Amino acid sequence: MTGPIIAAKNLTKVFGRGHAQVRALKSVSLSLAGGKLTLLMGPSGSGKTTLLSILGCMLSPDAGEVCVCGISAKKAGPEQLAKIRRSYIGFVFQSYHLFPTLTAAENVQLALDVRGERGRKARTKSRKLLARVGLEQKFTAFPRELSGGEQQRVAIARAIVANPSVILADEPTAALDGSNGRAIMTLLTEIAREQKSAVLVVTHDSRIMPFADRIIYIEDGSLTDEETGGARVYPIRKSASG
User: Fold this and answer.
1) Are 35 and 46 in contact (CB under 8 A)?
2) What SS3 state is found at 96?
3) What are the residue ranges spanned by the domains of the chain?
4) Sign of dihedral through CA atoms 63, 4, 194, 233?
5) What is the pLDDT of residues 116-127, one digit of tens each?
6) pLDDT tens, residue by residue, 176-219
7) Does residue 169 carry a pLDDT above 90?
8) How far is residue 219's CA from residue 65's CA, in Å, rounded to a whole number?
9) Alpha-carbon gap, residue 224 to 161, rounded angstroms
10) Which of 27, 84, 89, 91 lies closest to 61 in space, CA to CA?
11) At residue 152, what are phi and psi to the nearest 5 degrees?
12) Does the structural domain 6-235 have CATH classification 3.40.50.360?
């Protein structure tokens, strides 16, 4: 599609009330293009995961709007949001979120099952994706039989098996050593290029910065700075409320 795959405008999110109130996001706007890998970086509590959750239609903002592939999530109910997630978004989590009683292939197949794709075609597709991420010998292995890096590869295969337009990854290298972290980021970079997906990675891990086409910084709920191609290009002015 032409234009950004995800476009977010003036996102605001508040948690709590009174003295316990926290403004997690303060009028945040950004867009993500296909074929690019973007890092979202900032200190703990800066709003990274909140922003990721809203972009992924798992959490609704108190104000502002998110459009995914031209579809607005602003007035969408739970079923409509679930449809947007199924149709366009793949998720990769730090803790993998694999089902311990399912094999690697079955964990990947599950992402197809919820989209109504079952049977031999789904089995073939899941095994093809596992081979794509270097796990052709692990189809029948259970999560407990896999290393951390292998479990994350299964999680990535599950995220991309339905060819999503958007891949959102929350700290995908945090639990991995340097070698496995680089392998995971190489894989995500290749996916962005080959599938023309918009890949957004939330991270504290400065080791993976060379993999980024774009780096966005967030602090205290506001976007503060951006780098593209290793060069800082402009500051993002904080809102008056920030």
Assistant:
1) no
2) coil
3) 6-235
4) negative
5) 888 888 899 999
6) 888 888 888 999 999 999 989 999 999 988 889 999 999 999 99
7) yes
8) 20
9) 34
10) 27
11) -65, -35
12) no
